[in-house]
Specification:
Length: about 600
């Protein structure tokens, strides 16, 4: 069988994300928010998902790429009958009137490159996850789609009859399409589209120029940074795991989850990645989101929240949708929000540490320091001896997990450092005490015979999450114990070509059939940390081939054929790539001319 890849690119402006297929169709677009119903959902159902394509009659070939250092996507179509045309897709984003302009507006520019190709535009948005087909209202230069939460309008300089009747026409001049949600485009179409495109290109290129990205595999890190950026819902600062739902971890597995939410377990890794590339505005917005959740929550955190901090993420199955390549169920919402996951308190504590240790933040930004540190330390104390679902959110298993206690140890360490900054001895003593308790739980997971830390106390199972014992310096990376631990993990969990399984024991759905990509990037980091830099570089290079044609990475990879599976693109995977590249780059530390 051919390798399975996701043949789409993404565009976005930190208000919405859209997936555009190599065939020009908008395969996925949720409006008005990341977690709203899809307007186009062909990714999950070709018949009920609607369509927005710009295609020739008959056969064709396509070539898709990003305009360099931007989130502006180009799809070039070469019809078998001759000629060629280009579709430029973008979501407007730029600075205007002392704020970022990021409307619920998607632009498509169509221009002939060779000859006079004939094209057909088909635009059929839907609502309520395909259950509602919108009514169509024809205007003089636009088409309105009615019956959803808000009106959707398509404004164009293509003769409306051609779009309304899905009639092919000769592309003898540049055509524009502006799809809007709620407020229609009232400004002139052509000049507005060109200005928005120019300013959006300039915004993204400036954003990259203001990033601190080492030269080590720089194009991959740039693309990962651009992808991560548009996974942030700027209105609140939340960063979602992925913009899709129900793309299976492996075919027929039933592991089809809705990832359009913000996982607190990702906090440390996301903040670290943003810090590495020097983007503090995104970090501060994320700080604010986490702070708002923290002071509005009760005894414990949920593992994940909606992009507005909403707790109630009831998981429902949409039985009327066929699912991606027939894979069901299709889920909306995520039951993991109900789980107990105790690493997240440490994750949140560490995420606040830069406010105290990085002097690029000013003292006035450390608001309510004592209250904040006390608040999180109490949460760590409340949960430190408790069994939980662990990082992988087991639905019917609870243990004293090594990884959970590692982050409680790290969170208490961060609290100690913060308390020393504000010279509060009581908080220092509390943090040190909790560090010791967490360390005792971690040590209860050590197997002296195999010289490895297991996934949980009393278990013999190994878990890739314990690689973090090395990267977070719980284990001295230069120590023999760290090196032995790494060897034991790679002997059991490493797949071919550097891929890495999360674990290989049975969970609620049986044994995993695909590798989890971020674990492979963690493995690279661990190799670099213990000084195996040549191995780290080799394995990192091997992993890069698992991207799609646009350097975008999925959540999971099949070790047998390199197929991409799981929700896509996965912000977590891109964060893993960014952090692994940074770890190698600082280890190499050589002049750029060599």
């Amino acid at each position: 069988m051919a390798r399975h890849t996701y043949d789409t690119g993404i565009i976005g402006n930190c208000a919405f994300l859209a997936h555009i297929h190599k065939n020009t169709n908008i395969e996925w677009l949720c409006w008005p928010r990341f977690d709203s119903t899809f307007i186009f959902g062909g990714l999950l159902d070709k018949k009920k998902g609607g369509e927005f394509s710009i295609l020739p009659e008959g056969e064709y070939t396509s070539h898709q790429y990003y305009l360099e250092n931007t989130n502006v996507l180009i799809t070039e179509i070469s019809p078998a009958t001759g000629g060629m045309y280009r579709v430029t897709d973008f979501a407007p984003r730029f600075y205007q009137h002392q704020r970022y302009y990021k409307p619920l507006m998607l632009f498509r520019k169509i221009e002939a490159i060779e000859g006079s190709p004939r094209v057909k535009v088909k635009c059929e948005p839907v609502s309520e996850y395909g259950a509602v087909k919108l009514r169509v209202n024809r205007g003089s230069n636009h088409i309105q789609y009615l019956g959803g939460e808000e009106n959707i309008r398509l404004t164009t300089n293509i003769p409306i009859s051609y779009v309304f009747d899905e009639q092919p026409f000769v592309l003898n001049e540049i055509k524009y399409l502006a799809l809007t949600y709620g407020e229609p485009l009232e400004a002139p179409l052509i000049t507005t589209a060109e200005r928005f495109l120019s300013e959006t290109i300039q915004y993204w290129r400036t954003w990259i120029k203001h990033s601190s990205i080492a030269t080590y595999f720089q194009p991959y890190v740039i693309r990962s940074g651009l992808a991560l950026k548009i996974h942030q819902f700027e209105d609140t600062g939340a960063i979602i795991a992925a913009s899709t739902t129900s793309l299976p971890e492996s075919p027929g597995s039933g592991r089809n989850w809705d990832y359009r939410y913000c996982w607190l377990r990702d906090t440390y890794y996301v903040i670290t990645a943003l810090n590495h590339i020097g983007h503090f505005e995104e970090m501060e917005r994320y700080f604010s989101y986490v702070t708002d959740i923290s002071f509005s929550t009760d005894e414990r955190y949920q593992p994940l929240y909606s992009i507005t901090g909403k707790k109630d993420l009831v998981e429902n199955v949409l039985t009327d949708l066929e699912g991606y390549l027939g894979n069901q169920p299709v889920r909306v919402g995520n039951q993991a929000s109900e789980h107990i996951q105790n690493d997240i308190y440490g994750q949140v504590m560490i995420s606040m540490l830069p406010l105290y240790t990085d002097h690029r933040f000013v003292f006035s930004e450390r608001k309510d320091s004592v209250r904040w540190i006390e608040f999180l330390l109490k949460k760590i104390e409340f949960t430190i001896d408790e069994k939980d679902a662990g990082i992988w959110e087991f639905r019917n298993m609870a243990n004293i997990h090594c990884y959970s206690n590692l982050f409680q140890w790290a969170g208490a360490s961060a609290a100690e450092k913060m308390a020393r900054t504000i010279d509060n001895q009581e908080l220092i003593d509390k943090a040190v005490s909790l560090k010791d308790r967490a360390a005792a739980h971690i040590e209860s997971c050590y197997d002296p015979i195999r010289k490895v830390y297991t996934n949980s106390a009393g278990s013999s199972n190994l878990d890739a999450s314990t690689l973090q014992l090395i990267m977070m310096n719980y284990l001295d990376p230069t120590s023999q114990r760290a090196k032995d631990h790494l060897i034991a993990l790679e002997n059991e969990l490493k797949a071919s070509n550097g891929l890495f399984y999360r674990y290989l024991y049975k969970d609620d759905f049986g044994k995993p059939k695909t590798t989890f990509l971020i674990c492979a990037f963690w493995y690279v980091e661990a190799l670099a940390s213990v000084g195996r830099i040549d191995d780290a570089q080799r394995e990192f290079g091997n992993l890069l081939k698992y991207s799609n044609h646009l350097l975008l990475f999925s959540e999971d990879v099949d070790e047998n054929d390199g197929s991409q599976w799981g929700n896509f693109p996965q912000a977590y995977s891109h964060v893993g790539l960014m952090n692994a590249a940074y770890r190698i780059a600082i280890k190499l530390d050589r002049p750029i001319f060599l």
